[in-house]
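Assemble and predict.
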Amino acid sequence: MKRYFDSELETFRSDLLRMGEVAVRQVRDALQALVTGDVKLAERVIAADDELDDLEKAIDTEAIRYMNLRAPVATELRLVIVGMKASHDLERVGDEATNIAKRAIRLASEPPLKPYVDIPRMGTISIEMLRAALDCFIHADKEKAIAVVKRDMEVDTINRQLYRELSSFMVEQPGTITRALELMFISKGLERIADHATNIAEETVFLSEAQDIRHEESLKKTGLSS
Amino acid sequence: MENTSPAAAAPTRSLAMPLRATPKDDAEPVPTLIDVRNLDFYYGAKQALFDINIEIPDRRVTAFIGPSGCGKSTLLRCLNRMNDLIDGTAVKRGAIKIRDIDIYGPSVDPIELRKRVGMVFQKSNPFPKSIYENIIYGLRIQGVKSKTKLDEVVEKSLRGAALWDEVKDRLHESGLGLSGGQQQRLCIARTIAVEPEVILMDEPCSALDPIATAKVEELIHELKKQFTIIIVTHSMQQAARCSDRTAFFYMGKLIEFDATHNIFMNPKNPQTEAYVSGRFG
């Protein structure tokens, strides 16, 4: 049976998915701006962050109103709770993308320290994780969500490798310190984006199964070894 | 009284005996007080309950929910044989045991049973007597005459029903002069005056305003320390607020029975989910 306020939940759900799409686009564009030195694209990323901030606030407002007036239970209650948490994660993803874009602008005026290989690889994995987590949100796929959680290790590993590599650059050639630090922060930002994707994946398991899989070390013990 | 082993619980044992077990922590497994097995119940030719199996825990609040006509009130009334008063009703299969005693067994006196299993109705129904006489009605019937004893029961029951402070200065005025919420608490006081083991509540708050409802719910929370409570309610929020377990019925069948938190957070059955989230139909 349809209820007269079901459309409110549909709006909530579609706003959340729209937020997911915007967040993925922001990360992708920020990385492209970095790799191609495209300052204009980086500036567009920075300007577009407001869209995510507005969506986060809209989703919170819808969620609070729904809890207050509709007294949701069961799947609906879980959807509203998870929606609020996931929108917060996506907003943070947007912040990380903005930071990457700002650093891309600074790096664009200098020669590249080294060819971009690891960072685009991290970016690709993070974006794939985000997309998969959002898919789990739509399709309630626990196995797929766990696969996202496990992939977080891959990004962590590359981040650590890059940290070591960039540290030796700085030690050996102090002239590279500024650029190396920018890249370190970018790497850390991508690692955080993968963490947010992991959070969203974990939240989708709570949505579909009412099961809290956060901080389950056993789920994370695969992926590349460092 | 101490717990009785199943072997000692011969069907002839009197249900009027006090039947109390030691209070258990929520963390501990809760003993079953009422055990319903394979129950089929009929109103004449019409079957109202189909193969009901449910174990009601001791000194917890169990809520029965479900749409009108789903059988929840019928099952409630089976538990103290109130249905016996309706012509043509019959338990055609199965059994209801309270502490291993089959309450439909030949040796069980329904009047004695109803002392052990009290009932509070949707519409408060005080007798057209004073507040005091309402409370001691059951004891008078049992032949209790001692004024001291009766005074004691009146105060204890009214305090137990959170009504004492409001009525202590007008105990000999008519119970019908009380507000709706007070009348309902008076009926609860009257029920607990005979020290039952179980209190059945059939939509006890549906005619009450939110303040009176909150008082009754508060009272339910207090009473469960001493009594096993089963409440039929159409308010999902009430079931969620005041019960420990919830049973969902539909078309005469028990669809799902679980901890209330599970029923409202993660019901296993799609029909339960549809009902608790108001999508039923």
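Confidence is low (pLDDT under 50) at residues 1-26 of chain B.
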